[in-house]
């Protein structure tokens, strides 16, 4: 489908990292308690945001491909838990995803649409099996 390249450069301030991809630049950092400068989201927050963003973009792409579908509202709340390991590293151990959506579809078709969003979301599908995830729909 595509190849993506992100260049990440550690800056001299705290844990700040400048990321560049295409014509976009964005900062990542760590909170003050982790000796960062809290100038931007941390990498885990970007990961969680990637899940929510990907699901939202996927919903729009599905809507654009169907004449009979109108997405009136689509919101994704994502939370994650991390744990520290014995060797001093850490990892994301669980992700909770809550999707709130309103469409013009019947309840059965609405649920099928939500299931399709999850299945077609590149980021979610990339994390399946690597991180336990729970998804709820409202």
Q: What is the CATH homologous superfamily assignment of the largest domain?
A: K homology (KH) domain
Span between termini: 31 Å
Describe the strand arrangement of the main beta sheet, using strand numbers. 1-2-3
Could you list the spans in which at least 5 consecutive residues all have pLDDT below 50? none
Rounded mean pLDDT is 97
Largest sheet: 3 strands, antiparallel
Protein name: OsmC family protein
Pfam families: OsmC
Features:
138 residues; OsmC/Ohr_fam; OsmC/Ohrsf; KH_dom-like_a/b; GMP Synthetase, Chain A, domain 3; 2 domains; three-stranded antiparallel beta sheet; globular
List the helices and strands and how they pair.
Layout: E1 7-10, E2 17-21, E3 24-28, H1 43-64, E4 71-84, E5 90-103, H2 107-120, H3 122-127, E6 133-137
Parallel strand pairs: 5-6
Antiparallel strand pairs: 1-2, 2-3, 4-5
Protein name: OsmC family protein
Pfam families: OsmC
Question: Can you describe what's shown?
Answer:
- Helices cover 30% and strands 34% of the residues.
- The chain has three helices and six strands, in the order βββαββααβ.
- The mean pLDDT is 97.
- It has helices at residues 43-64, 107-120, 122-127; strands at 7-10, 17-21, 24-28, 71-84, 90-103, 133-137.
- α1 packs across α2 (107-120).
- It folds into two domains: 1-40; 43-137, K homology (KH) domain (GMP Synthetase, Chain A, domain 3, 2-Layer Sandwich).
- The protein is an alpha+beta fold and 138 residues long.
- The strands form two sheets. A three-stranded antiparallel β-sheet has the order 1-2-3, with no helix packed on it. Strands 4-5-6 form a three-stranded mixed β-sheet, with helices on one face.
- The chain is globular and about 55 Å long.
- It comes from Secundilactobacillus pentosiphilus.
- It holds the Pfam family OsmC.
